[in-house]
Amino acid sequence: MSLRPLAQLLEAALFAASRPLTVEELQTLEGEATAADVRAALDELREHYDFGGHAVEVVELAGGYQVLTRRAFAEAIERAQFAARPARLTAAALETLAVIAYRQPVGRAEIEEIRGVSAGGVLRTLQERGLIEVVGRSDGMGRPLLYGTTALFLELLGLRDLAELPRAEEFSVALQPPRPAAADADEAAASVPAES
Amino acid sequence: MSLRPLAQLLEAALFAASRPLTVEELQTLEGEATAADVRAALDELREHYDFGGHAVEVVELAGGYQVLTRRAFAEAIERAQFAARPARLTAAALETLAVIAYRQPVGRAEIEEIRGVSAGGVLRTLQERGLIEVVGRSDGMGRPLLYGTTALFLELLGLRDLAELPRAEEFSVALQPPRPAAADADEAAASVPAES
Amino acid sequence: MTPPTAALGADPGFVVRLDQFSGPLDLLLHLLREEQIDIADIPVARIADQFLEVIHELGLNQAADYLEMAGRLLRLKAQMLLPRREGEEGWEDPRSELVRRLLEYQQIKEIARWLERAAERRALQFPRGYLPEPPELPPPPLALELLGFVQAVERVIAAIPQPVLHRVVPRPLDTEGALRRLEVLLAQREVFSWVEALGAHPTIVEVLSTLLAVLELARRGLCRLAQPAPFEPLLVYRETPCPAPAVGEELTTHVPQTTGPVA
């Protein structure tokens, strides 16, 4: 037996939504549908899932409805560890980590200046991953946090200590915030009006 | 007709994953299952969704399988604002992806030569969105980085693999005045892979 | 269809924005399409002029890529004007490189359009919106390789805008120049602040040169110096030279705070 149109619409909406949907919200899917229609269609969907032997079910939750996987399958899924992608850092995370490794202790402002993009989310990720930590505060305005790499960082790269970072001197010099050309003394000199 | 145990397990796993899962990954759900078993169970699930009139379907994507809502429900879901489409790519991003997809592995210089504009910013954006990645280095001067497309690129375009891209020769190389834009668009639409 | 350049001038409501093109090749293709021109036989002179006119209208401040193309077109225009003999052997159409690039770019644009349509089509299918919390298991081991790490460093370095490197020229103090400026000012005015002899954005070298020049003039007895209050600029007063100036005397008598910092 095939799902009827309203039950199909509800299935699509409940699948795509990131939170439980109320009967009123579900009514907006189909202008003519009454609350009773929606409830009947929800029952139809629930029965379909139950009798069809589906691994998912319609659950009433927080005043709304959501389609969730049945508890019985949760364990098998956890064992398979699909939920997380294989753990590799994104290019953005890797680049931020690189700046911190060679410039530590370093604040967020300097990292952003060097990479030219904002760093908030990436810093949080790296901290959650245990690759960087707050190592102090700068003396500057607002006393911003300073970051450094952790022991786990060295361990993952197979290094004994920071001195073993490849091309440490070359890279720590090259990873500078860009200098604005206007600050250059020659330019300033050139802007003095010629007199005499 | 009720789903059999392996198909149930697959349904639960596909509902829980945020990306397409490969046959190998799905095999880990059930120690004894062979790749053929998994494929058979995927077919069972697909037929169940098709004949049961479900609003979702099993889609083969980026080397794996994912459950997605059917196209027919896109408008209703968007109208009710239960979910939003991913941000559209800019023309610059699309052209850069086009060069990389067809020339990979390819360096920045070649991309810039073909497009006639500098590519630094776009490459960075595409990398941060996870659509391209560094796949190696050229042997040339300065050993420039070479870029290639990622699995997420295939996911975003709804492709099973790179072989699904039309051959470059299929795109007209017009030595005559270009046709009106409308005709162009129709032709491009026609060559989009048909729904599987 | 109206050529874009004509339309630009004729109708203020018609605006061609540079960001509607994804590059100079795109703009060039647009011009050719507007004029219904065969790519294989481009009237270079006309198209070059139109190209220049459009990028001029659109402002050149951030259009380095467009300027480069403008340069190529002008070179090409000049090459096309060179006389060539009928049926000359080995004559290669100077436009062939441009034609090749335009065709290649046109193909990329078509592929880009295909990709866009594929992405739009794919966007009509939604993945599951609710994703369960990741299982409470230790996170999978993190893969971090030294090669990837070093590549990340190099990417960051490559993306840092290179500071403009200036040639370092040894810059001696220019006391002579400062003296001339001060003498001009002294000839014009009875009294002025020494800061006026510095110009708008003086370098440290110019400050030092001027200070030395002021002191030198005072030594010669051509001016006297006074500082009304600490931290205020020195005032330079015109003085008629005496036959035998007392060296340094003017300075000490007229500067009330000899230790006062000079602003």
Topology:
The complex is a heterotrimer, with two copies of chain A (196 residues) and one copy of chain C (263 residues).
Chain A: H1 5-16, H2 23-27, H3 35-51, E1 56-61, E2 64-69, H4 71-80, H5 91-103, E3 106-107, H6 108-115, H7 120-128, E4 132-137, E5 145-149, H8 151-157, H9 168-174, H10 185-190
Chain C: H1 4-10, H2 24-34, H3 44-58, H4 64-81, H5 96-122, H6 146-159, H7 175-188, E1 191-193, H8 204-220, E2 223-226, E3 235-238, H9 249-254
Antiparallel strand pairs in C: 1-3, 2-3
Give a quick set of tags describing it.
heterotrimer, A: alpha+beta, three-stranded antiparallel beta sheet, 48% helix, disordered C terminus, C: 263 residues, mainly alpha, disordered N terminus
Oligomer designation? heterotrimer
- What is the number of E strands of chain C? 3
Question: Pairing-aware structural class of the strands and helices of chain C?
Answer: mainly alpha
Sheet/helix structural class of chain A:
alpha+beta
Largest sheet of chain C: 3 strands, antiparallel
Largest interface: B-C, 60 and 51 residues
- Continuous helix count of chain C: 9
In whole angstroms, how far apart are the ends of chain C?
Answer: 67 Å
Would you kindly provide a brief summary of this structure?
The complex is a heterotrimer, with two copies of chain A (196 residues) and one copy of chain C (263 residues). Chain A is of the alpha+beta class. Chain A has ten helices and five strands, in the order αααββααβααββααα.
Task: Write up this protein.
The complex is a heterotrimer, with two copies of chain A (196 residues) and one copy of chain C (263 residues). With 196 residues, chain A is an alpha+beta fold. Helix content of chain A is 48%, strand content 13%. Chain A contains ten helices and five strands, in the order αααββααβααββααα. Chain A has helices at residues 5-16, 23-27, 35-51, 71-80, 91-103, 108-115, 120-128, 151-157, 168-174, 185-190, and strands at 56-61, 64-69, 106-107, 132-137, 145-149. The longest helix of chain A has 17 residues, at 35-51. Chain A starts with a helix and ends in a 6-residue tail after the last helix. The model of chain A is unreliable at 181-196 (pLDDT under 50). Chain C is mainly alpha-helical and 263 residues long. Chain C has a three-stranded antiparallel beta sheet. The longest helix of chain C is centred in the middle third of the chain and has 27 residues, at 96-122. Chains B and C meet through strand 2, helix 5, helix 8 and helix 9 of B and helix 2, helix 4, helix 5 and helix 6 of C.
